[in-house]
């Protein structure tokens, strides 16, 4: 009998730079790609009652799986689809198909570790070995200058220790062909959104990008941003934009699901610098990739503490309350603070929000409304198309002032931020159409509008300010 291996795809939904795939092809004559829609992830809820995977990310993943299957079929293979608990589904497939190995990316956060540990135990009962591979990070941990648990707690030191010294390995090539699945294998059907309790929806016409999941779209976006439009050459100047698809790379949805390898991004960036231009903007893309690695390493180092209210620092934070009504007003974009409301409405309508928007809305919830940051982190987990556990919770740790870096306790002056990044109010008007007639000098100060102004601008139904805007003037 031929040696068989299962590749359990997780957040590595690509064929390029896929260590599990490359390793399996070296070890086995028959390679069986598998993806399991974990019922707890796609149909479950967070602690505060939000869908763990909202409709935007669910559709993006469904598209990514369809693309992965199509790409596997082009090479002569296919993708087995199952729905349930991966530790049960994969172990049963391994038993039925008499495989010798299961290969997968190792994950480091609580829920993912529980699943892979449970799978490993079940596989051992069938004398099947679970082999872990890597693929989420820019760096290989074994190339880092210190062990993971000695990683510096602040990003600046981590960057200085690595950016000039630690090599970024070349991405592994995409296979040219794959062995067919064993005869008679039932590949299974890809679910639809309704299977996870979501209704089909039309993409909002106001969205900055029409995100479509999959490796094919990821590589297309990489070519567009680097080579077709040369947008990477001005990234540092435009990255804080709010409107349009070109102000930032928008790679994060594909990076989060592993449709795009960070190593491939890096080496394309280096090629771009050699062939066209290297400047502060191209460096800044590398800088952002370093942040992704840093947050993942902090997740490995501090484990479940990144999810706890006190975070890595263990602060009590008794002043932050689980105020559901205040949270609801924030989440629905009805705070009466135009810049906050516009960002939250974009998130709710598209599953996307700019980095500038995320920092401001998070700071406002925690520092101004005094609401438990965990509620915001879970809401982002539910809504964001590019949710990544370590990056999402790591960023919320920093906003709440409980991150690993003791110096980080940032507060955003929302009025100043709004005037700096949306000076004419174009972004606010885009997402808050009730403010369409408010002039630029008043768009961010609805508290100063007289009754005459409100009547003139048609603001009878606009929400009242939930906090005093003038506090940001001092």
Protein model, in words:
This protein has 474 residues and is an alpha/beta fold. The chain contains 19 helices and five strands. It has helices at 19-27, 39-42, 55-74, 86-96, 110-125, 155-162, 215-228, 235-238, 252-256, 262-275, 280-302, 324-331, 338-350, 355-368, 373-383, 389-400, 414-421, 426-431, 451-457; strands at 4-9, 30-38, 80-84, 101-105, 129-133. The protein has a five-stranded parallel β-sheet with strand order 3-2-1-4-5, sandwiched between helices. Helix 4 (86-96) runs parallel beside helix 5, helix 10 runs antiparallel to helix 11 (280-302) and helix 15 (373-383) packs antiparallel against helix 16 (389-400). The longest helix has 23 residues, at 280-302. It starts with a strand and ends in a 17-residue tail after the last helix.
Main attributes?
474 residues, single chain, 5-stranded parallel β-sheet
List the helices and strands and how they pair.
Elements: E1 4-9, H1 19-27, E2 30-38, H2 39-42, H3 55-74, E3 80-84, H4 86-96, E4 101-105, H5 110-125, E5 129-133, H6 155-162, H7 215-228, H8 235-238, H9 252-256, H10 262-275, H11 280-302, H12 324-331, H13 338-350, H14 355-368, H15 373-383, H16 389-400, H17 414-421, H18 426-431, H19 451-457
> How far is it from the N-terminal to the C-terminal residue, by CA?
76 Å
Shape: globular
Structural class: alpha/beta
How do the helices and strands follow one another from N- to C-terminus?
A: EHEHHEHEHEHHHHHHHHHHHHHH
Q: Approximately how much helix is present in the residues?
A: 40-55%
Number of continuous helical runs:
19
Q: Specify the biggest β-sheet.
A: 5 strands, parallel
E-strand count: 5
- Low confidence ranges: none
Strand order of the largest sheet: 3-2-1-4-5
The proportion of residues in beta strands is 5-15%
Mean pLDDT, all residues: 96
Q: Specify Rg, calculated over alpha carbons.
A: 23 Å
């Amino acid at each position: 009998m031929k040696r068989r291996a299962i590749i359990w795809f997780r957040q590595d939904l690509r064929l390029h730079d896929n260590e599990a795939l490359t390793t399996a092809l070296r070890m086995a004559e028959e390679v069986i790609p598998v993806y399991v829609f974990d019922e707890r992830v796609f149909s479950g809820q967070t602690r505060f009652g939000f869908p763990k995977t909202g409709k935007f990310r669910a559709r993006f993943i469904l598209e990514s799986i369809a693309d992965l299957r199509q790409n596997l079929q082009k090479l002569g293979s296919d993708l087995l689809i199952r729905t349930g608990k991966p530790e049960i589904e994969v172990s049963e497939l391994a038993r039925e198909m008499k495989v010798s190995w299961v290969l997968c990316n190792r994950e480091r956060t609580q829920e993912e570790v529980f699943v892979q540990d449970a799978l490993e135990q079940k596989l051992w009962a069938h004398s099947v070995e679970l082999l872990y591979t890597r693929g989420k990070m820019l760096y290989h941990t074994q190339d880092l200058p210190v062990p993971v648990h000695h990683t510096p707690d602040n990003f600046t030191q981590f960057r200085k220790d690595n950016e000039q010294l630690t090599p970024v390995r070349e991405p592994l090539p995409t296979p040219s062909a794959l062995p067919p699945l064993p005869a008679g294998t039932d590949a299974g059907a890809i679910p639809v959104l309704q299977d996870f309790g979501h209704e089909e929806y039309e993409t909002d016409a106001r969205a900055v990008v029409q995100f479509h999941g999959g490796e094919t779209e990821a590589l297309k976006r990489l070519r567009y941003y680097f080579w077709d439009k040369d947008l990477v050459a001005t990234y540092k100047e435009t990255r804080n934009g709010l409107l349009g698809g070109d102000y930032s790379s928008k790679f994060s949805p594909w990076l989060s699901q592993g449709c795009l390898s960070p190593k491939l991004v890096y080496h394309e960036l280096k090629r771009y610098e050699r062939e066209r231009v290297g400047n502060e903007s191209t460096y800044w893309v590398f800088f952002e990739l370093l942040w992704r690695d840093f947050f993942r390493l902090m997740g490995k180092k501090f484990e479940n503490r990144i999810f706890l209210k006190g975070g890595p620092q263990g602060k009590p934070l008794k002043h932050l309350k689980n105020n559901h009504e205040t949270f609801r007003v924030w989440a629905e974009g009805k705070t009466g603070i135009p810049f906050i409301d516009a960002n939250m409405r974009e998130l709710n309508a598209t599953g996307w929000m700019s980095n500038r928007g995320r920092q401001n809305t998070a700071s406002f919830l925690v520092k101004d409304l005094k609401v438990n940051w965990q509620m915001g982190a879970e809401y982002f987990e539910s809504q964001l198309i590019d949710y990544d556990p370590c990056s999402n919770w790591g960023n919320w740790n920093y906003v709440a002032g409980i991150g690993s870096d003791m110096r980080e306790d940032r507060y955003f002056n929302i009025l100043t931020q709004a005037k700096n990044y949306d000076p004419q109010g174009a972004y606010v008007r885009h997402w808050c159409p009730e403010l369409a007639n408010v002039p630029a000098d008043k768009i961010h100060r609805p508290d100063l509008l007289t009754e005459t102004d409100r009547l003139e601008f048609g603001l009878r139904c606009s929400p009242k300010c939930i906090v005093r805007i003038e506090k940001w003037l001092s």
